[in-house]
Amino acid sequence: MPVTPSARESAPQPPSLSGVPMRELLAACAAAAAVSTPPRAPEPRETREGHREAA
To answer: What angle do CA 24, 39, 51 make, to 5 degrees?
Structure first.
């Protein structure tokens, strides 16, 4: 059953949870991901002959 325009206008709108702009929210998520991600392991070193050292 399609919704009529009058039914959409009378439906209550959900309240805004916060006044935080989307740009700030995305920046906060990116910062949290950067802080909580452990650093990458260093690449294995190569010897002078170009072979990797044994672990």
So the answer is: 140
Residues 6+ apart with CB under 8 A from 55: 44
* CA distance from start to end of the chain: 67
pLDDT for the residue 45: 83
Q: Three-state SS for 28?
A: helix
Q: What is the pLDDT of residues 1-55, one digit of tens each?
A: 566 666 556 667 666 566 889 999 999 999 999 999 998 889 888 766 655 666 6
Look at the alpha carbons of 7, 9, 10, 13 in this order and tell me if their dihedral is positive or negative: positive
